[in-house]
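Appendix B, Record 12. Input sequence as logged:
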Amino acid sequence: MSFPALAFVDLETTGATASADRITEIGIVEVDESGVREWSCLVNPGTPISGFIERLTGISNSMVSEAPAFAEVAAEVKARLEGRLFIAHNARFDYGFLKNEFKRAGQDFRATVLCTVKLSRKLFPQHAKHNLDSLIERHGLEVSSRHRALGDARLIHQFWNRVQAEIDPDLLAETIKTLTARPSLPAGIEPAVIDDLPEGPGVYLFYGENNLPLYVGKSKELKKRVLSHFAADHAAAREMDLAQQVKRIEYIETGGEIGALLKEAELIKQLQPIHNRRLRRNDELCFWQLIETHPGEWRPVLMPAGEFEFGPQSHWYGPFKSAREAKRVLAELAKPHQLCHALLDLESVKPGKPCFAYQLRHCKGTCVGEEPVLSHSARLMAALSRHRIVPWPFAGPAWIKEGSEVHLIHHWRHLGTVCNEADLYALLDSSAPSFERDSYRILLKARERMVPLAVEGNH
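Logged structural output:
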């Protein structure tokens, strides 16, 4: 069985995110008709190596302090990989890191990639685990230096040799052909566009004829998600229709999933793509605000989103996409909590007269004086509690760090995303955006990652 020239590749890095972390070591085993050659090189990542990574790999800051930066070895790495089948274990990781490093060095890098994790799953489906340690144990691979780049590249090469010896050549050839096949793309979309897509988090944009925005999506694995749109086995006609309309693809890398979620919500509201049904701009957004009209008497007042503001004793509930939805939710809460429709302003009733809910015995009679208003107010607050806007937990703004990005937030409003401290403080001087329901929900789930921003003194 013949194959093109091969390169078995492994990297050691400062972390797991290709867009933010850097390479510390490269190991390559080249195989072709001339034989087998090995090459490895430590790389100065230009950023500190954490204690955890040092303990895992044995590569310390002192070891890489005199090593070349990636840009200094880029030409040699490219020469060793170019024209070869790129084989790695969890290849998305290694290929993604190399593409990012080449991009920083101002160079383009593309290769046909074969992942030995996927190869093992296809050839040995009876086994549950396919990590490198499992392959070592299962196939009796000889370990020289685990968690070092060249040592692990050697293990991948050994696995390849075992597979060639154990698997029927026709089955192996067909499996590799399937795993390395180019995706089926819409007419006009060049394969190079897909090759350039990041493996990590970000947002993608599909455009149709006449530059019409079709769809905005996000993913932690951008390339994988985009390719899923063009799978041949679409379950839904809507997915098939979208795939056939795409004429151009754009993408925006983000530091992490929160950034991707925020950017997706922002772009959908801005572009109004025809295939996005969620997260669209909503100019009718509103809240219920409880206002104390008399001592102990609290009544709901419908407020537009533009009036929303935080206060020390604010009682805001929502947000709701429209006044109609807000009234529907309040009406649905009224029955189980025996709330008075008159006091909720859900129906117009003369003072002292019973509301319709009272006549159905769904109201405890606050409208006719049979129940103290104070009791009704307490039940109203309890009924709405699930919809209450969570109080902002900080005295001022807060930030979230994701990779190389920092998101600035204040009162659940996303003020912006920057990559350095100076720009972070500059955001404080810009006008605050309106309250957004989608941003609020995204940020609420991320509140444990928020850090209060010091704004006193000089910045």
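The chain has four domains: 6-179, 191-271, 286-387, 398-452.
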